[in-house]
């Protein structure tokens, strides 16, 4: 059996947890069908984020969608939030099996 695969974009946003509600509203409004959020910890240019207390929490939001939608979301997130919040964004091309979900 050969599976038919469909190309989509994976946009990953690493951000301060304070942004979760705002990001989820933006992502849905801009055309993504859904997203997945995880609590994460790490270290980077903004220092160590251990997530021990509420203001130190970081999230990882994953959005699978069409490339144009991913670009629009990334542009809006960078425009609205990058000057006041710690953010990292990256893209990957992925293949999915159920394209209607993304």
Polypeptide structure, described:
It is a single chain. The chain has helices at 20-29, 67-81, and strands at 6-16, 36-40, 42-44, 47-49, 58-65, 87-96. A hairpin with a 2-residue loop joins β3 (42-44) and β4 (47-49). The protein is α+β, with helices and mostly antiparallel strands. The mean pLDDT is 90.
Number of strands: 6
- Gap between N and C termini: 23 Å
- Helicity, as a percent range: 10-25%
Overall form: globular
Number of helices: 2
- Uncertain runs are none
Q: Rg, please?
A: 15 Å
User: On the 0-100 scale, what is the average pLDDT?
Assistant: 90
Oligomerization state of this entry? single chain
Largest sheet: 4 strands, antiparallel
Biggest sheet, spatial arrangement of strands: 2-5-1-6
Question: What is the H/E string?
Answer: EHEEEEHE
Sheet-strand content, in percent, reads 35-45%
Helix-and-strand structural type: alpha+beta
Search tags:
102 residues; four-stranded antiparallel beta sheet; two-stranded antiparallel ribbon
Please give the structural blueprint.
Layout: E1 6-16, H1 20-29, E2 36-40, E3 42-44, E4 47-49, E5 58-65, H2 67-81, E6 87-96
Antiparallel strand pairs: 1-5, 1-6, 2-5, 3-4
Summarize the structure.
With 102 residues, the protein is α+β, with helices and mostly antiparallel strands.
């Amino acid at each position: 059996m050969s599976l038919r695969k469909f190309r989509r974009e994976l946009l990953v946003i690493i951000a301060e947890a304070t942004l979760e509600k705002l990001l989820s509203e933006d992502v849905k409004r801009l055309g993504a069908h859904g997203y997945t959020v995880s609590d994460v910890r790490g270290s980077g240019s903004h220092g160590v984020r251990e997530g021990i207390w509420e203001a130190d929490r970081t999230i990882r939001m994953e959005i699978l969608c069409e490339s144009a939608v991913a670009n629009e979301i990334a542009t809006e997130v960078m425009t609205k939030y990058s000057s006041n919040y710690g953010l990292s964004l990256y893209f990957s091309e992925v293949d999915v099996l159920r394209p209607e979900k993304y």
